[in-house]
Design brief:
With 206 residues, the chain is of the alpha/beta class. It has six helices and eleven strands. The strands form three sheets. The chain has a six-stranded mixed beta sheet with strand order 4-3-5-2-6-11, sandwiched between helices. It has a three-stranded mixed beta sheet with strand order 1-10-7, sandwiched between helices. Helix 3 links the parallel strand 3 (63-66) and strand 4 (85-88). It is globular and about 45 Å long.
Length: 206
Amino acid sequence: MLLAVVPPLASGLIRLLGCTLRFRDVCDPGVTPGHLIPPPGVFGFWHRSLLMAAYRFRNMGIAILISQSFDGELIARTVERLGFVAIRGSSSRGGAVALLQMERAVKSGLLAAFTADGPRGPVYVAKPGLTQLAQRTTGDAGAFHLHPSSAWKLKSWDLFFIPKPFSRVTVSWPAHVLIAPDADLAEALVRVQQMMERATQMAVTA
C-alpha cells in the first residue's frame, strides 16, 4: 500500500513546494552549472540536499544511486516520477553492481549525481563511490550544494533540509577535480572531499 500511495503523493508535494522556491546559481570562475554542460558527467552532492535537488533537476534524465532498502524503494519510485533514472545499490549493499550500473549509465551518455555521504553518513564525509565512478568514466568529478535561506532541519544522520515555502535556494558549483585513470584513489578522494566542502562553503556564504 505504501508503494502505491507514497511515491505519487511525495512527488506531487515536491513539485508543489518546489514551484514556490527561487533558485540561483553561484559558480567558481570559469565553471558552468553542471546541468548546462552536455552529458555525460559525474557530480556529487550531500544527502541533506536531496529534496531540493529532486525538484531543481527534475525531468533531465539524470542517473542517481538509491539504496536497496524499502525506504530506498519509496525514494526510487518517487524520483522516477520526477524524471530521474534510479539505479539501486549503495556502498553497504550491492555496491560493486551499483557502481557498474552507474558506470554504464554515464558511458551511455547520461549525467550522474551521487550523494557523496550517502546512504548512512557520516554527514559531510565523502565516500569513495563518487571518486571511483569519475575515475572509471569521465576522468573528472563535479559537485554542487543546495542551501535554502529558510528551512526545517531534521534530526536525522544527514541533517536533512526541508526548505520552507518561498525560500531562496542557492546552488553552488565549485571547480571540478580531475581524476586520471591511474590516480591514487586515496589522494583523489581527499581532493573530492575538499571540492565538496568548497561547494558547501560557497552556498552558505553566497
